[in-house]
Amino acid sequence: MGKNSCSTICERAMKLFQRFGLKAVTMDDVSKEMSISKKTLYTFFQNKSDLVDQAIRKKMKSHKSELDSIKKSKENAIEELMANHSMLINILEQFGKNFFALRKYYPSTFDWASHQRKNTIIKSCKANLERGISEGIYKSDIDIEKISLLRYFSLTGITEDETLSESPELRNSLLNKSLVMHVQYIATKRGVTCLNDTLQSNKNAKSFLI
Predict the structure, then answer these.
(1) Which member of 30, 81, 95, 170 has the greatest number of CB atoms within 10 A?
(2) CB–CB of 88/175 below 8 Å?
């Protein structure tokens, strides 16, 4: 499997978790997926908890890299924010229900991931607000600290509601509306125009307006 075998196992295990559920997948399943013995698998991971922990850490690291790439590739703060939002929806579609299994069965990993997620969201939001102000599409007198916290609690309040996980269409609609309301509150007139233009160019724009 080469030098990157640990990363490869984590990546393939994460796909199994996404497909069958975090609780259902066993170390036997992972070893069969990788075509290796359990003995070999245990040279990389102490147990399933260790595998879950390492897989989550690697996945979150890749998410941070993706956020950095989005920031560099988008023309303005609103386009960046919309792309970040699409990334969030994609993550929820892939791993949403496993969030609650992680909280229940792997609390240490969940606590670490929650702390990292909070830091990442708030840091990303602050940077986006500063970028938008410098571009003249966000109001210059907004309270960056408080709005970043408000954005974080808005996102987590929706994504961590277990009843909404059973209704992803409603959950995603609430997230979309939350994003639009966030931008409408902080945007200048030019920013509102930019938001409308971005929504019009988004093939899923209707979902933001329902």
Answers:
(1) 81
(2) yes
pLDDT digits (tens, 9 = 90+) for 41-61: 999 999 999 999 999 999 999
Alpha-carbon 1 to chain mean position:
29
pTM above 0.90, yes or no: no
Q: What are phi and psi of 96, to 5 degrees?
A: -50, -55
For residues 128 and 123, give the distance between their C-alpha atoms in angstroms, rounded to a whole number: 9
What are the helix (H) ranges across the chain?
5-20, 27-34, 38-41, 48-73, 77-95, 98-105, 107-135, 144-159, 162-165, 168-186, 189-201, 205-209
Q: How far apart are CA 181 and CA 172, in angstroms?
A: 14
**C-alpha to C-alpha distance for 199 and 204, rounded to whole angstroms:** 8
Q: What is the pLDDT of residues 121-138, one digit of tens each?
A: 999 999 999 999 999 999
Using the structure block, give the residue that is written with the tokens 């069958």: 20
Domains, in order of start, for the chain? 49-209 (1.10.357.10)
